[in-house]
Structure formats: C-alpha cells, structure tokens
Design goal:
mainly alpha
Amino acid sequence: MVNKDQVKGVANQAKGAVKEAAGKVTGNKKTEAEGKTEKLAGKVQKGYGDAKEKVKKAL
C-alpha cells in the first residue's frame, strides 16, 4: 500500500532534484539551495508516510 505522504514525498524529491540541477547549470546558488531543501523535505515526508504504513500494518 502507498499513502499520499509517500507519493507527495517522492514527487517533492524529484521536483527538488530538478530545481537543484537547474541551479547548478545556471550558476544560481539560490535555486540550487531551494532544490536541496525541497529534496530534503520530500525525504522527510516520504519517511513519515513510510512510518504511517508500518503502524497500519502493525495494527
């Protein structure tokens, strides 16, 4: 089973990776940093979703 937090987390990771790469290519440090932040936020959100699934399965 996959929940919405897992899906949104993966989507945010992908969006962040694209933004980070765009920042690197253009030399825009702000965009690169924003991309890294979005990627990290996506990882956290996916981890939260994973934890919710483990709790569901345990119950």
